Amino acid sequence: MALNKRRKMKKEKKRFLVTHSNPESVVSEQFRTIRTNIHFINGKKKSSIILVTSPGKGEGKSTITANIAVSMAQQKEKVLLIDGAIRSPDIHSTFKMANQVGLTDVLAGKASFEEAVVSSKIGMLDILTGGTNPRNPAELLASQSMVNLLERVKPLYDIILIDSPPLLKLTDSKVMAHICDGVVLVVKKNKTSLDSIFESKRVLEFANTQIIGTVVND
Questions:
Q1: Torsions phi, psi for 59 (to 5 deg)
Q2: Which domains does the chain have, with CATH numbers?
Q3: pLDDT tens, 101-144?
Q4: Phi-psi bin for 119: left (phi > 0), alpha (psi -120 to 50), beta?
Q5: Does the keyword DNA-binding apply (predicted)?
Q6: Rounded distance between C-alpha atoms, residue 60 and residue 186, angstroms
Q7: Measured between alpha carbons, how far is 185 from 201 in angstroms, rounded to an integer?
Q8: Which is it for the CA torsion 165, 96, 74, 141, positive or negative?
């Protein structure tokens, strides 16, 4: 029973990266449309930092972020995907890689960016996992170290995507939003309430950040 469960979980993880496993599918084409729309809205900026968040849990935010990153990398873009959901990181699981050293370790001065960043081996997509569990996650994400890190790596990539925690549950996304160039809000069909969407919009506007788009996840 346990073996069958593990096999099932591995298959589910593979389906998460549909843009990689089935690039010709209808779903992959939808992610290419999202990628194109982000570029269109973003204009002629040479490099951008985009935060991806959702109002609450279970709305598919991390899966959406990972697939957008892969879709961009497939177009020969140099992409950095950062797992900013450091309380409960998941990007490393999606890409089947270790999470021994990551964002929290870089911010805490325990490792350099070069020591922590990992190639996904999908185009020019690099990944900075969440890292070891921190004692003060909100303080780390709001620190000058976070600002310095983004300023340093921004010129190295065409685009940087940050997967962040649910917006209305924690302060983490709010403190990161204002240091990014824009925010993509992921909502779940038949799950996310209109009140949550409007509250998210209000919170992001208060954080003085630009909402560049909303993705409705089926």
A1: -105, 10
A2: 45-217 (3.40.50.300)
A3: 999 999 999 999 999 999 999 999 999 999 998 888 889 999 99
A4: beta
A5: no
A6: 7
A7: 9
A8: positive
